[in-house]
Amino acid sequence: MGKREFLLNEYEIAHKKVFEGNDRGKLYFRPLTVTDIESKNEYYQMEKEIFEKYHIKDESDVYRLKPLHESEEDKYVAMTRIGRYTFPFLHRHDFIEIQYVYHGECRHYINNNLQVLKEGDIWFLGEGTVHANELLHDDDIAFSFMISKELFGVAFFNLLKDDKKLLDSFSNILKSKSSGSYILYRTGDDEWLHNEILSLYEENMCGDSYMNESISLGIHQILIYLMRHYRSEAFEMEAKDDKYEIQFIPLFHYMTDNYQTVTLQSMADDFGYSEIYLSNLIKKSTGKSFIDFITGVRMDLAKDKLLHTAFSITQIAQDVGFYDASHFTNKFKRLYGMTPNEYRKNSKSHILGV
Hints:
Elements: H1 10-19, H2 24-27, H3 34-38, H4 41-54, E1 55-57, E2 63-65, E3 77-81, E4 91-92, E5 96-103, E6 105-110, E7 113-118, E8 121-125, E9 131-134, E10 141-147, H5 149-160, H6 164-175, E11 182-186, H7 191-206, H8 211-229, E12 234-240, E13 243-247, H9 249-257, H10 264-271, H11 275-286, H12 290-308, H13 313-319, H14 325-336, H15 340-352
């Protein structure tokens, strides 16, 4: 399926004229507060009907979106195409938002920090996140899914129960009220995702009684796809006191996937970081040094093999990245106060009740 063309509608055409006019610098390229918008009465009138219908003024000088479905506030999903050339007004909402850049780019402001999303980027924004969007070209196309917290939790948490890191990250999105948490996947020109998003938009335009359930199932399928194909390429960002702490989920998965052979130097080379920067980032994210984290991963796997296989100590040591069985045994004893053989015997005796 090729790229679908989306012609400008009347609303977008009107805003494009403003964008091409003399006041361009006052209305674009920076996020706008309620005061910014309302002080420019001519342009506020262009948005007044939408603001009054869908938004409430917030005490922090931003707009808050009203619940999309008053009668089903606890369980809803909706989808829309983000308008091109519309003013980047700051707003927040009480639901989870998923945005996908179908073509071009989307300029996105979070707490006055600019993120330029590229084609194929899909991200999950937490409840209460203050943000604003800008699409400044005719061929910039982006979609937004709005999902109630309740539906998001029910639909998605079972998928993440075996991945603690991602589960914690998505939990942050549900818990966050204003910190600006989000998770971003960069999928590039992934054809399956491209076609699936477009199909959901067509479903959204249908508008029949099955639409809500169909879109919910579609989003569920998208998350499964992301877990299968992009799990190691996502990262989480949190805003705390206007400073962003980047917690790279790919670092976590890289280390757990390559625990047998990974070194700090090889990892730094693969990610393009200095060893010092990478070491500090791992320490900040996990509370452990690189060596301690990798050793913990290896030992957890070793303990599992000691309990659930009949492999020799030498074989287990090699399997988890210790090519010297004596070194493995000494390290194991320092950490747990017993040798691997003693751990195997004691643990099995405990399980059997002898």
